[in-house]
Amino acid sequence: MSLLPRSVPRIILRRSYGTVQSSPSAASIASRIPVALQEATAATVPRTTWTREEVQQIYETPLNQLTYAAAAIHRRFHDPSAIQMCTLMNIKTGGCSEDCSYCAQSSRHNTGLKATKMSPVDDVLKAARIAKANGSTRFCMGAAWRDMRGRKTSLKNVKQMVSGVREMGMEVCVTLGMIDENQAKELKDAGLTAYNHNLDTSREFYPTIITTRSYDERLKTLSHVRDAGINVCSGGILGLGEADSDRIGLIHTVSSLPSHPESFPVNALVPIPGTPLGERKMISFDKLLRTIATARIVLPATIVRLAAGRISLSEEQQVQCFMAGANAVFTGEKMLTTDCNGWDEDREMFERWGFYPMKSFEKDADASVSKESAPPSANVSAAPAAASS
Asked: Where are the transmembrane segments (predicted)?
C-alpha cells in the first residue's frame, strides 16, 4: 500500500544516480595545465634555463594538479619509496655575530642560549656512530659563526671529523658559514660529501631578514663549494613573512645556478622567543606542500629535504610531502637548537607507509645511470584520462 500523498506525482521521485556522465579528454585536461609544467613533465634531464615566469606558472598551478605532476616527475628521477635519513649535530653552539632574524644562535638576540666551544672530535664521531646504528646514512655538522677566517684550529678539527665520519661509510655534510676557495679544497680533500649554505629566501626579501651577510656572498660560497667538487646543499626557510613571489624567487635562483644543488632543504620556521621572528606563526601546510612540489618539478634530480619544522607536521602531512617529491628528512635527537623527530618514530612511519631508508651515496650511483634507462614519460596531460578508464 502506497504511503505517498496522492498530490505528489510519482515521476518527480525518479532520480538518476549515474556518477560519471562523460570523461574529460586528454586535450581538455592539457589545456588547463601551464605550458611550463607540461614541458617539465616531458623532460628527461634537469635544466638550468628556467625563467622566473616559468617557475611562477608551475607554483601557481592548482595544488591537486601540481602535486600529481611532482609525483610523476619524482618517480622518473628517484625511487619513490627511498627516503634519506640524515642526522644533524651542532658542533659549536651560539655566540654567532650574524643578525639572522630567525636564529637562536645569534649573539644579538636574547634567547637564553649559552655559547659553547667546539665539540671534541671524539664526541662528534661517537654521535655519528650512534646515528649510523639508528639508520642514518648522512651525518651533518653545523657551527655557529659567520665564516672560517682565522679558524685554522677549528678547520683542522672539522677535517678530522669529516674523515672519521667518511671512514664509517656515511655521507657527511657541514655548514660552517662562508668559506673561501682554499678552505673548500681542504674540506674536499678530507672527504666532505656536501656543504650546506642556505639562501633562505628570495634576493628581494633577504635584506629584511639578514643584514650582516649579503645574498651575493652566499652565492659566492656556493660557487667555491661547487668549484672544489663538493655537492651543494642549499635551500630556504618558509614562514619568515615572505610572499609567494619570494618562494618563487628562491626556487628560481637555485634552479638557474650553473648546476642544480644536490640537496634542497625546505625548512618551516620554528619561531624562537627572543628572536625578531619569535612571535610568527608556522607557515600554512598548503604553502609548504606547494613549495616542495614546485622544487621537485624544477629541480627533478635534486634531493628535496624536509628539514626544520617537520616535527610540527602530522604523519599524514609528512607523507603528503613525500608523495609530492620530498625524499630526505632530518632524524634523531635534535636539529641545531630545535626538536627533531626521533629515529624510532620515523622507522615506524616508514614501515606503515612503505618507505625505507636510502643507502649512503645512493644518489651518486643513480647519477651514473643513463637517461635512456629512465621510465617512459609520465606526461600529466594524458595520465588523468588514462587513470579514469
From this structure: none
If we measure between CA atoms, which residue out of 249, 270, 267, 366 comes closest to residue 321?
A: 267
The residues assigned a catalytic role are: 96, 100, 103, 140, 173, 233, 305
CA dist., res. 70 & res. 320, Å (int) = 11
Is residue 381 in some structural domain?
A: no
DSSP string, 162-183: HHHHHHTT-EEEEE-SB--HHH
Distance separating alpha carbons of residues 330 and 90, to the nearest angstrom: 13
Question: Residue 357 carries which DSSP code?
Answer: E
Annotated binding residue 305: yes
Question: Domain residues for 108?
Answer: 76-358
Q: Binding site annotation covers 173? A: yes
What backbone phi and psi angles, to 5 degrees, belong to 69? -65, -40
How many domains does the chain contain in total? 1
What is the DSSP code (8-state) at residue 257?
A: S
Task: List, in sequence order, every beta strand (DSSP E) within the chain.
Answer: 82-92, 138-143, 171-175, 194-196, 231-233, 236-238, 263-268, 303-306, 326-330, 356-357
Q: Is 302 contained in some domain? A: yes
Q: Is 140 annotated as a binding residue?
A: yes
CA dihedral in degrees (177, 178, 181, 183; nearest 10)?
-40
Structural domain includes residue 388: no
Mean pLDDT in residue range 190-205? 97
For residue range 365-387, list pLDDT tens digits in order: 555 433 333 333 334 433 333 33
Which tens digit of pLDDT belongs to each residue from 200-240? 999 999 999 999 989 999 999 999 999 999 999 999 999 99
Q: Is position 61 within any domain? A: no
The Cα-based distances of 20 to 16, 23, 233, 387, 388 in angstroms read 11, 7, 47, 14, 10
